[in-house]
Amino acid sequence: MFLYLLLFPSLATSLLTTTTTTQCRSFCGTIPINYPFGIDDGCGAIQLRHTLNCTSPDLFFLTPSGSYKVQHIDYLKSTLTIYDPSMSTCSILQPHHDFLMTDIQTAVIPPSSDTVFALLNCSVDSPVLNHYRSLCFNVSSHSCDELYASCNAFRVFRLLTNSTPPCCFTGYDTVRYMSMNILDCSHYTTVVDADGMRGVSPLDWVYGIKLSYGLPDRGCDRCSASGGTCGFDTETEGMLCLCSGSSNGTRQCGEISMLCHYH
Description:
Blueprint: H1 2-7, H2 9-16, E1 17-19, E2 27-28, E3 31-32, E4 52-55, E5 58-63, E6 66-74, E7 79-83, H3 103-108, E8 116-122, H4 144-150, H5 155-161, E9 168-170, H6 172-177, H7 180-183, E10 185-191, E11 209-212, H8 220-225, E12 229-232, E13 239-242, E14 247-249
Antiparallel strand pairs: 1-14, 2-3, 4-5, 5-6, 6-7, 7-11, 8-9, 8-10, 12-13
């Protein structure tokens, strides 16, 4: 086989490269788009295909429950922070809804451990106040009473019941496995950076959802060092190193050394 490829180098080239018209945009507005993300089909990691949508100048993270505006991507810390425009915050009360992600998204880019989901105005029969009460945890000594007293949007809960309705500070897995209807809480909000909430009023919390991504190293650094952009074949879904011009390598640009796509 090796001798055959030496005698017919054009065949070797065709085996090692592929022709594509994919152009990977590197920015959406002011947000840089680097691996593992991509806003053009065939760019980035296959696991995150169709996850981002660029409606310039805004970048959105897409899940089964909606489109969430991306506020920041930190490539050094491997985090992406999004904001849910339909989420209740200290200043506005929104109709309740669920935050849903696909199984693949949950596996490769779930909410970070320091993102807190605060379930509000819960019934005394809520499972997180009974059988699953261990799912609620203390967050820098903040209380339901403080939350309802500090936030104009949440004061209505006390006015309606003439008391302080239960609430629950919890993590993503709770809302992943139990919908808001099952949780029997009327609203929720999410706060980024649990450690940064210590001694800070709910008025000054950073509302949003921080996602933490992790993907196996499949040689993207090698591709980037050769001047290419990591992507994938839109038909076979095998990994490609997208190079300038019309020929793309399987691992890097400008070198014919590998005979197979990544799988």
